[in-house]
Amino acid sequence: MLTQSCPIPCDPLDHSxxxxxxxxxxxxxxxxxxxxxxxxxxHESSFTPLVIIELAQDVKEETKEWLKNRIxxxxxxxxxxxxxxxxxxxxxxxxxxxxxLYLVGASKIxxxxxxxxxxxxxxxxxxxxxAFTYGTRHNFKDFDDDxxxxxxxxxRQFIIKHELENLxxxxxxxxxxxxxxxxxxxKSLLRRLLTSGIVAQVFPLHDNEALKKLEDAWYTRFTLKxxxxxxxxxxxxxxxxxxxxxxxxxxxxxxxMAIIGLPYYLFAWEDYDKYVIFASFNLIWSTVILEVWKRGxxxxxxxxxxLVMKRKFEEPRxxxxxxxxxxxxxxxxxxxxxxxxxxxxxxxxxxxxxxxCLYFSLFVMMIYFDMEAWALGLHEDSGSExxxxxxxxPSIIYAIVIEVMNRLYRYAAEFLTSWENHRLESxxxxxxxxxxxxxxxxxxxxxxxxxxxxxxDMKLLRQSLxxxxxxxxxxNQIVESLLPYWLQKKHHVRVKKKVEALKADIDATLYEQVxxxxxxxxxxxxxxxxxxLFLQFGYVSLFSCVYPLAAAFAVLNNLTEVNxxxxxMCRVFKRPFSEPSASIGVWQLAFETMSVISVVTxxxxxxxxxxxxxxxxxxKTDLILIVVAVEHTLLALKFILAFAIPDxxxxxxxxxxxxxxxxxxxxxxxxxxxxENLKEECREGGKEKAP
Length: 691
Known about the structure:
Blueprint: H1 12-17, H2 29-32, E1 51-55, H3 61-72, E2 83-86, H4 90-95, E3 101-105, H5 108-118, E4 121-123, E5 129-131, H6 153-165, E6 174-175, E7 178-182, H7 189-195, E8 199-204, H8 208-218, H9 229-236, H10 238-266, H11 272-304, E9 323-326, E10 333-336, H12 339-382, H13 385-390, H14 393-419, H15 425-455, H16 458-500, H17 508-518, H18 527-542, H19 550-572, H20 586-608, H21 610-614, H22 620-644, H23 650-689
Antiparallel strand pairs: 1-3, 1-8, 2-3, 4-5, 6-7, 9-10
Helix pairs in contact: 5-6, 9-10, 10-11, 10-19, 11-20, 11-22, 12-14, 12-15, 14-15, 14-16, 15-16, 15-18, 16-17, 16-19, 18-20, 20-22
């Protein structure tokens, strides 16, 4: 045990490196870990690999050596102080492929110090949530020097990613061996290596044992049960867990709508008085579920610690470029790009391109209506059974075309948004989401609005809505999960045969796992998953008074979606890095906007019904005024409900207020102590000057 106090001030990481114990002591259990504090395990040859770095095939040896040294060098010397070794040793490299794969890990102490650096929030023994600090580690629940499970694997991998991304250039002007890959002080080395193509990819490894347990509790047995959201969060992180939590919540929230909508279909109710009741319930339902979700989300993220996690200053995104200059906020050297140039690109290029795509979408929609008219004319002429089936073909073809156009437009939107050169990842995501949502909304719903308000054909509206909803759900299941899973299984078989044929004395299990996972597709985030739910919400809410059965189809789809998305995360894609999240972000606003639009469309549809029109045979102006008044009343009711239902439960509000109070008190104490120290120094200085 070390008991000597540190003679000089030091930060937590340097503190442990010097082998000092101010203001805490290390226990004898550290010796069981075979940890030497002065080196902090940087020379361990055997460790648990958490992250894989794959270099390009032709990377020069001097570049590899430089990268290795920067990763294992002590923190105080500008390194990441992580554990690093090649997947294959010298002998194995001569007999095997994949020579540019490297394993990255960290010692327990390094991970705990990293947890403090990234600001992870954990539960204390007094049941409060506080930012973890290494010095007070024994005050946190479930912490023990012999317990390696205090940090989840997702948190450990997030810490390593953070440390790798914060490896910054010091006095280097370029990456060794690559004069064209320029560096400047403060530049993230990993981001420069990725954009230069020197590093092919960086990804976290799966934990096969933990993954198998998660799968057994999650989706391998198809039963109606709640998802293990906390275990998903422990393995994949908060962002993924929030998506699955929202998917589960949204599915259960759809059940009342589905139950109420079934009688309208089973008994063929055409009485619009009953549709008014259903539409009114829908409008209240869409508001209440979104507000209740906010409360549930706040409870979850408080329990996970992300609700009280301090927001970090955002670094420039990897693709950001410009003329080298000094950031006025940070004082650091980084690329600077004039805002007016970005605005010119947005308004002179991106905006016209989006408008052109919207026009093309409407042009395709008119072709669809020509196909509908042709199929209807053919059916009226012949009246045969096969022509009645043919009536559904134009809608199916149009649904497929919509999905193809959505995916092609997504690639174009990503290229344009990247070309706009946004400095922050959050700004990039917001502009991308806006572009994609506008196009997807028009592309998916324009035909339905046209049928409802121009053609005024309610029968065709029901048919088109049902066809678009069901076809899009089937296509998404196939394209997102089933097809990638089948391709991945074929690749897995090929890799297994290759590994079994090896004669070399290697850790075949680890080698097979790394080679298999590096070829998996990269999960690009929850964007497409939320977009699918957003469009589904639109199909259910926008035209609910015309097709109440939409909610039932959405429930059936989501019950399988939970399992197919779980399969996709566990077996199809590489494991994504954990990202702390406190909410579903901008998607909350998107869903709320859709619910407001649904008020307008449902009121307009009910106002167009023959029964309502019959009440005002002479004056259509009175009808329009009444419909507008009802619509405004319902919107006012929505906003009153949204205001009346707090976003956070009362007990969460109290805990957050308590934490804020304690933080302010701690700040006051710190300022008071600083002031007293300054006074003491002034008094001592005065005594020295006195004769």
